[in-house]
Amino acid sequence: MSIPGGSVAFRAVHEQWGTVFAHLPDLGCGRGWEAVWRVRPRAPVVCDECGHPMIAKTSRAGLRFFAHAPGAPACALGLESLAHHLLKLELAGAARDAGAHAELEVRGPDGSWRADVLAGDPAGTWRTALEAQLSPLTDADITARTERMRADGVTSIWFSDRARPPWLGTVPSIRLATRDGDAGLVVAEGLVKFRDARWRSAPQVPVADFLRWAFTGKVVPHAPRTHLEYPLRQLSQVWTAPQYIAAEHTHLAEEERRRRLQEEQTRAREQAREKKRDGIRARNAVSRAKALAEATAAEQLARLDREREPRPRPGVERALSRLAHEHDVVATVGWSMGDSRYADGVPLVDENGVPAAVFAPEPRHVRGDAYLLLADLLLVFRTPTDVRRFENAMKRAKHWPVDGFRTDSTDADPPNIPHRDGTCTCAVPQLVARIARIDYPAEPSEQIGPAAALYLARCRGCGRRYSGPWRRTTGNRTPETRPGR
User: Fold this and answer.
1) What is the DSSP letter of 92?
2) Which of 3, 188, 248, 435 could form an S-S bond across to 177 if both were Cys, CB 3.0 to 4.6 Å?
3) Strands 228-229 and 198-201, how do they pair?
4) What is the DSSP annotation of 359-373?
5) Quick check: 209 and 191 in contact, CB under 8 A?
6) Structure pTM?
7) Which residues are registered as beta bridge partners of 435?
8) CA 374 → CA 22, 298, 355, 356, 401, distances in Å?
9) For 121-140, b where at least 16 C-beta lie within 10 A, e where not — what string?
10) Is the peptide bond before 122 cis (omega within 30 degrees of 0)?
């Protein structure tokens, strides 16, 4: 549309008639357009923004407007685009079609805001500013302007006919568009319905229909609490009918009820499982204690049979070191090695002959008494791979304790093996045996014992290792190696 030179406005102030509106048939004061257009002398109308004289004009398409006379100062109205003025005019017309009184470019009481279109009912019970916003605006700015109007009792609805207004949904807002085959504007984005547990875009409606609903409370602003199945983007604030808000609330309440019910059911199932596990643990405690007592008795009998002296396998020395350093258990190879209850593994027993661990048991032999015993003992393997092989085999065979097996591996050199450089030649060796980082008194003996088979003794007199058979003389630590020394 071609517009003659000068800035565009649809509102001016007449010297005698007060505020006049170019878009109204009677100018809003009972006068015709001819009373201000092409009259001589020029009609005494001025801009209500800057006070500069204005001229009534008509475009080639018949659009009536006021323009600043030449020499006008910088004026906010003069900076507005034609598109902005036309959108304001559309909004004013739609507000009147919706049954409201509409006035263009109305200032707030203290001048801190100016509504593009101020709509209200004749009785003045409500007022709503219809804002045409085409230029970029930050969320903070548009929120601040909305709050300033709200402080004076004026609600607001922001409109744009641009493709993607960045502030859409920050405040009560609507994106408008022109529908094919229709010269009027329709609501294209911001009006939604709650269907099938989610928000969906509502059909396009003329802006006058939307305003009629908004003025009467049939649609209200709402912050969605569920997913917005929207073709363009998620919006923080939309327009919808109160019944759809209630539907969302009902849906969320039902979702919360189902969530709580599911949590209660899960908790009840877990409590039932834990109660069952407690029962299994109680029964296991009895059966495992019995199995351990029987294994201990077998170990005591084996110790009486010196012809069945244990022959440690490779890696057992590391297992004993690991047991001492990582689990604080001082152990030796049991005399009952070869008993089926250890599943072809090596029993590692404490000083009292009670089994404390088993080295490298074979999963295919973990059955019956062996299962009851090994389920309660520490199982030590050479490598983590051996641990995984054992556990996978037991799971496949469905032989798995309620709390699983306790396992460990020896994948590093034991740190307590002393250096073997030189041999004691003292006539009366003063021996000490270092076991699990602790020194114990020892003495030469005629027969090698389980500890001597696994650990080395040294002479405190010469500091060298002792190569002959030895035995511990007492279970007490030597004074010089007690903790803190």
Assistant:
1) H
2) 188
3) parallel
4) ES--GGG--THHHHH
5) no
6) 0.58
7) 438
8) 98, 15, 10, 10, 10
9) eeeeeebbbbbbbeeebeee
10) no
